[in-house]
Specification:
- The structure is a homodimer.
- The first copy, chain A, is mainly α and about 230 residues long.
- The first copy, chain A, has nine helices and two strands.
- Chain A has a two-stranded antiparallel sheet.
- In chain A, a hairpin with a 5-residue loop joins β1 and β2.
- In chain A, α4 crosses α7 and α5 packs antiparallel against α6.
- The longest helix of chain A is centred in the middle third of the chain and has 25 residues.
- Chain A is globular, with a radius of gyration of 18 Å.
- Chains A and B meet through α3, α4 and α7 of A and α3, α4 and α7 of B.
- The structure holds a DNA duplex (30 and 30 nucleotides).
Chain lengths: ~230, ~230
DNA sequence: ATATTACATTTTGTCGATATTTTATATTAT
DNA sequence: ATAATATAAAATATCGACAAAATGTAATAT
């Protein structure tokens, strides 16, 4: 598995430069919902928060503009990208299209090693999902790892790149909506169904299960996002 | 037509900040092939070339890393992304997928205004293509405008964003290969066929013609790129 | 000759300071 | 009171300088 982007922030690739660190932390904080959508990202504030100069921060923010997490206009500094139902729908639809395509490609050429990666990552995810005390932090990591493992045999660098962007965007919406636990839903079963289909090499089924999985999540998020008219 | 990205460099949107200028010029020069793939982008050199300080240049380069035009590793500065046949193939395939999808979406909801945009941009492109003295500069502009007009009714912001990246990447390969005029090919006829299909609202035909159009270009580029073993 | 080490040079990444622009506030006029 | 204008404050974008790291070169050892 070759590194995807230049800003590969995975294990074994510790950020060497301050800019890399800033990029990772900022992106993480935005995805986590630490910064409200649309809010200004004042440099002076970020300097304090992350304990570094303006330059690495501005460079990191510049990067983030290109994957849609941050916007910048004229001489008016940086802002966290706004969210909207339309955008969520767009992201969801595109993610379905690209992940489906990536799954197909992955299935076509996936060898034993790929299967092993799928099983292994599914197992790790299961451990968390069936545990009594859920570790949300670790779940996020492993959920991501599982989805990436499924498409890890897909050769297309660009497809994987676009997919990662959409996954992260989608994740931000999930976090912002602070997922509704009241909606009865067995996420583990959904993950399991995809894994089964993968090992059976049943492309159609896997894609269908995967699409349902994504859309169900999006639906819950959309429900939480809709009632802007709280009071 | 809302602006696509924050770094929308189209007419009426003059770059307000030095960083924007740097971004535009750098991207243009890379796409044009002024910088060889894989070559180092030394800041000192760029400072001279573009007549500005290091900060806006570094910020522009940071942006460019996210759409795959520039790479950066550790403390070793910036480089123009390398090219390869695999990458060209990848870009081509993905562009076919995304442009086809965008065309379908555009056809579905395209109204009279959309048709007008298509006709108008096709007309402008035709003027260049049928002229005796071809203005390559202007042709590039209008070719881009035509392809964007075709998908301009597609609502998906993300699809259009990804598409633009791929279009520009593809364009770089075209320029690097210094297109082979000896291969007999009537590009104008291809553009014309797509336009006809669009106005007939024949989705299938339009997508087919469009795919052929892209793949034919890619094939010529690939042929020029292959013989690395010159002597 | 090849490999290793030490040194000098270049280049990169980062900070603090500054000019410019935008935003907020107060003042005056309609 | 609202609108328009002038002024003050804040924030942004940019530069020049410096420390750290990488690269290239020369000297020494195997």
């Amino acid at each position: 598995m070759p590194p995807l982007s230049d800003t590969d922030q995975t294990l074994g690739n510790p950020p060497k430069t301050l800019t890399d660190q800033a990029y990772g932390k900022l992106r993480d904080d935005i995805i986590r919902g630490e910064f409200q959508p649309g809010s200004k990202l004042r440099i002076e504030l970020l300097k304090q928060r992350y304990g570094m100069g303006a330059t690495p921060l501005r460079e990191a923010l510049s990067r983030l503009t290109q994957n849609g997490f941050v916007t910048t206009e004229g001489q008016r500094g940086f802002r966290v990208s706004v969210t909207s139902l339309d955008d969520l729908e767009d992201i969801t639809d595109m993610r379905v299209v690209l992940e489906t395509l990536a799954l197909k490609k992955s299935f076509e050429v996936g060898d034993d090693e790929w299967e092993a990666r799928v099983i292994a990552s599914f197992h790790q995810l299961s451990k968390i999902e069936t545990a009594t005390e859920p570790d949300l932090e670790r779940w996020e990591e492993r959920n991501r790892a599982y989805h990436l493992a499924l498409i890890s045999a897909c050769h297309s660098k660009w497809l994987r790149r676009f997919y990662e962007t959409l996954y992260d965007q989608h994740k931000r919406y999930r976090n912002l909506a602070r997922i509704d636990r009241s909606v009865p839903r067995d996420v583990h079963a959904e993950h399991s169904a995809i894994c089964d289909a993968a090992l059976e090499r049943n492309i159609t089924k896997a894609c269908q299960e995967n699409e349902n999985h994504i859309r169900r999540t999006a639906e819950v998020v959309a429900k939480m996002l809709k009632p802007k008219k709280i009071s």
